[in-house]
From TrEMBL, chain A:
Name of the protein in its database record: Autoinducer 2 import system permease protein LsrD
Top-rank taxon: Bacteria
GO MF, any single term: transmembrane transporter activity
Pfam families: BPD_transp_2 (PF02653)
From TrEMBL, chain B:
SUPFAM superfamilies reported in the protein's UniProt record: P-loop containing nucleoside triphosphate hydrolases
Protein name: Ribose transport system ATP-binding protein
Chief location category: membrane
Assigned keywords, A-Z: ATP-binding, Cell membrane, Membrane, Nucleotide-binding, Repeat, Sugar transport, Translocase, Transport
Bilayer topology: Peripheral membrane protein
CDD domains cross-referenced by the UniProt entry: ABC_Carb_Monos_I (cd03216), ABC_Carb_Monos_II (cd03215)
């Protein structure tokens, strides 16, 4: 019957202007609000530190978008971050020369976690929400066991370089944190993979209609597993940056999985799959960080952040649903 | 026939946006009779039943129960008036017992507690009423029962609701021969108890076996009404007797038909048996049959989605066995699913992305989305242009396109891969007349270009008009072959198993 509806006369669809994702407007508005509260923000030390602080979440959100667009969730990324920080500290044992092989081991762990997540979802048919929730609890436990419950002070300086170091005396911008470079490189790579390759288009197709994708010849299991692996690897990179930010503890990554999902949804990623954008998810991460920054300026206590984050998540999804309904899905 | 019918529908009309589903349909059913309601897919049977059961409200006409006009606003109203419908998809909860299902939502209580004993006794009584008491344990989980028993539970549920009118929508679709016989006996018993049974079916032998009266629907109108059971051929004629529009492409000439490109010998699996046929390059091979005859199962077996367990399949001279669609596609088979939205399209993606889906699936994972071994973006746009896909832009979401244009985008997906065999399942379902003609000509063009085309359709005139050769399937196997332009009656008789009746 729908087809008849479609062929019957209806207001001609005007060729829409290239639509700009609303998240960019929200981000711009928030930055203006921050500047009004704190004029120093326009200085490089202001905005660069902001970007640096946002970098781990931005990378995490860019990875999370892969899983969301493919039709799932990845809740294991927060505890993977914790495991990366705790594990790196245990393995490196304050030896600065260990940094490179430790990072390789961590990427290996990320690859393994992503593979297990993906294979459990694809072949054991466990819904991704449950599969990655189980992984989240497991990884948290492993991190605790590994550290013996008492993680030590700080990672070696050479490891903390990525999260902590600022390159000074850069023309025009004076300082450039390494974390921001990492964010830009990873962000671009994930953008390219999602929006410029066959894999990216297939992730969209699988999240949109897995049955149709399968009958069209898409290797849906390979595609889904790839999405989980990418998300896990992005969590490892986020963990390496966060290890540079502060001390080693077993709650470094706590709550990051939900922040990443919130950021991706703020960027317009569609829950249950089929639509989403890496740049918009990064913008979503910056937006979330900007909101937290603003709440800080306003002197609101930490618990308020959680309340706000929860409300934003609900509001963003409700808004997306409303927009879709209005455009006639 | 002087008594007041237990239900009567008078001058029923129902319109959906852009289509008249029912026009001036009248229908009545007496106590203690089985009234067969027959018609092709899309003739309006389901709409009529949904009006009777309160799912839809009619735009015109009246529904009368025992001669009094009623207006059902909700299926619960119809249930309360004693009208129960057993749909093809059962409405039972699999992880509940038979008793729990029968009393779902109206459990007997005593002192605020469930009275399990009373419910079990009543269930047993109802099951015994039609001789199913020994076969079905009231405490068995529904998921443990076979399909036929589940259907009996549905019937028992209706009886325990004191149904005066029982509608059965193609009840034998999932039953085997002996289960069918049991069902017929149950229907006989219901009739003896004074229940009015409305029996929807495609199968002539069921009409002959069961019905007291027959009403034939076609294109939303009553095409014929019989107060006795006529010869099956008379019913079939009333069902299909429409003009065949001449918008089909010409048939293949002898020299257009080439060598055998695909053949199956002794193919079988849980839904199929003894499948033997050959498909030649350059021909359109039509598959006719009623729903559940195994046509789609055969397509999915050839495509590797539900593989053959037995038999051999040859593709272009080589023995093949596909267990996954990817293998079949790589070997040169394409398939257009019958459920376009559910199995064909990725609705949120663009027209072009839908066309590029299969070519991309066989390219390198990190290869550019704009170009692969099979085609590139401009090549895809060229294909879409050639098929005259009407879209404001190929970047537009495909869900905004009409059904015919959506179908063409799926065809484009396969054209880019240049398949040896292309299987069309219900290629014109739900698309308008002009778009249909476009699809027929497209299929013919592909055949002329050397592909073997398989066309599975429930629209009989379409199969006759478009296919060079027609295979008829029934109960999981191929039962007959007809030449191009065979008569609808002859095919329908094969499809329904009434071969002994002269066409």
């Amino acid at each position: 019957m729908t087809d008849h509806t479609l062929s019957s006369p209806q207001p001609k669809q005007t060729r829409r202007l290239p639509q700009i994702n609303p998240v960019y407007f929200i981000l711009a508005a928030l930055i203006v609000a921050i500047i009004l509260n704190n004029p120093n923000f326009v200085e490089p030390s202001g905005y660069m530190n902001f970007l640096k602080r946002a970098a781990p979440l931005a990378i995490l959100a860019a990875g999370q978008v892969y899983v969301i667009v493919s039709g799932g969730f990845d809740l294991s990324v927060g505890s993977l971050i914790t495991l990366v920080v705790v594990g790196s500290s245990m393995l490196s044992n304050n030896d600065p020369s260990s940094t490179w092989w430790v990072i390789c081991v961590m990427l290996g762990i990320g690859l393994g976690v992503g593979l297990v997540n993906g294979l459990v979802v694809c072949f054991l048919k466990v819904p991704s929400l449950i599969a990655t929730l189980g992984m989240m609890i497991t990884l948290n436990g492993i991190a605790f066991m590994w550290s013996g419950g008492a993680p030590r002070g700080y990672l070696p300086e050479s490891f903390r370089y990525f999260g902590r170091f600022n390159i000074r005396d850069v023309p025009l911008i004076q300082m450039l944190p390494v974390a921001v470079i990492v964010m830009a490189v990873v962000g671009f790579a994930l953008y390219w993979l999602m929006h410029r390759t066959n894999l990216g288009r297939m992730i969209h197709a699988v999240g949109d209609n897995p049955r149709a994708a399968q009958l069209a010849g898409v290797p849906i299991n390979r595609v889904r597993v790839s999405a989980f692996v990418i998300s896990s690897l992005s969590a490892v990179i986020a963990g390496i940056l966060l290890g540079g930010f502060g001390g080693v503890s077993t709650d470094v990554g706590t709550g990051y999985e939900l922040q990443a999902i919130t950021a991706a949804v703020l960027g317009g990623a569609q829950l249950l799959g089929g639509r989403g954008s890496v740049p918009a998810a990064i913008a979503g991460a910056l937006t979330l960080t900007a909101i937290f920054t603003l709440l800080n300026f306003l002197g609101l206590p930490q618990p308020v952040r959680q309340v706000v984050q929860g409300l934003i998540l609900i509001a963003a999804v409700a808004l997306a649903m409303y927009r879709r309904k209005r455009t006639g899905q | 026939m002087t008594q007041t019918p237990v239900i009567e529908m008078k001058g029923i009309g129902k319109r959906f946006p852009g289509v008249v589903a029912l026009h001036d349909v009248s229908f009545a059913c007496q106590r203690g009779e089985v009234h067969a309601l027959v018609g092709e897919n899309g003739a309006g049977k389901s709409t009529l039943i949904k009006i009777l059961s309160g799912v839809y409200q009619p735009d015109d006409g009246d529904v009368l129960v025992e001669g009094k006009p009623v207006r059902f606003r909700h299926p619960v109203d119809a249930l309360a008036a004693g009208i129960s419908v057993i749909y093809q998809e059962f409405s039972l909860l699999p992880e509940r017992t038979v008793t729990q299902n029968i009393f779902l939502g109206r459990e007997i209580t005593r002192n605020w507690m469930l009275d399990d004993e009373a419910m079990r006794t009543e269930t047993q009584r109802v099951l015994d009423m039609f001789g199913a008491g020994s076969r079905i344990d009231p405490d068995a989980l529904v998921s443990e029962l076979d399909v036929a028993s589940q259907q009996m539970v549905e019937i028992a549920k209706a009886i325990s609701l004191n149904a005066r009118v029982l509608v059965m929508d193609e009840p034998t679709a999932a039953l085997n021969e002996s289960e069918c016989r049991e069902l017929f006996e149950i229907v006989d018993k219901l009739r003896d108890h004074g229940t009015a049974v409305i029996y929807i079916t495609h199968r002539m032998r069921e009409v002959t076996r069961l019905a007291d009266r027959v009403t034939v629907l076609k294109d939303g109108e009553v095409a014929a009404r019989f107060d006795h059971v006529p010869e099956p051929s008379a019913i079939v004629h009333a069902m299909v007797g429409r003009d065949i529009a001449d918008f089909y492409a010409p048939f293949a000439t002898a020299d257009e038909i080439g060598a055998t490109v695909l053949s199956v010998q002794g193919g079988g699996n849980s839904a199929l048996r003894n499948i033997d046929f050959e498909l030649k390059a350059g021909e359109i091979l039509g598959f006719a049959g009623i729903q559940g005859a195994g046509r789609v199962a055969l397509a999915m077996a050839m495509f590797g989605a539900r593989p053959f367990d037995t038999g051999t399949m040859m593709l272009a001279g080589e023995k093949v066995h596909f267990t996954h669609p990817r293998q079949a596609i790589r070997a040169g088979i394409g398939l257009l699913p019958g459920d376009r939205k559910g199995e064909g399209l990725t609705l949120m993606q663009s027209v072009r992305d839908n066309g590029m889906l299969s070519p991309r699936a066989f390219g390198s994972l990190v290869g550019s989305h704009k170009k692969n071994d099979f085609t590139d973006v401009s090549g895809m746009d060229g294909l879409l242009d050639r098929m005259e896909v009407k879209a404001a832009s190929y970047d537009q979401e495909i869900k905004l396109l009409s059904g015919g244009n959506q179908q063409k985008a799926i065809v484009a997906r396969w054209l880019a891969l240049k398949p040896k065999v292309l299987i069309f399942i219900e290629p014109t379902r739900g698309i308008d007349v002009n778009a249909k003609a476009g699809i027929y000509h497209l299929m013919r063009d592909l055949a002329r270009a050397g592909a073997g085309i398989i066309m599975i359709s429930s629209d009989l005139p379409e199969v006759i008009g478009a296919a060079d050769r027609i295979l008829v399937m029934r109960e999981g196997t191929i039962v007959a072959e007809h030449k191009a332009g065979a008569s609808e009656t002859a095919i329908m008789l094969d499809a329904t198993g009434e071969t002994e009746v002269a066409a």
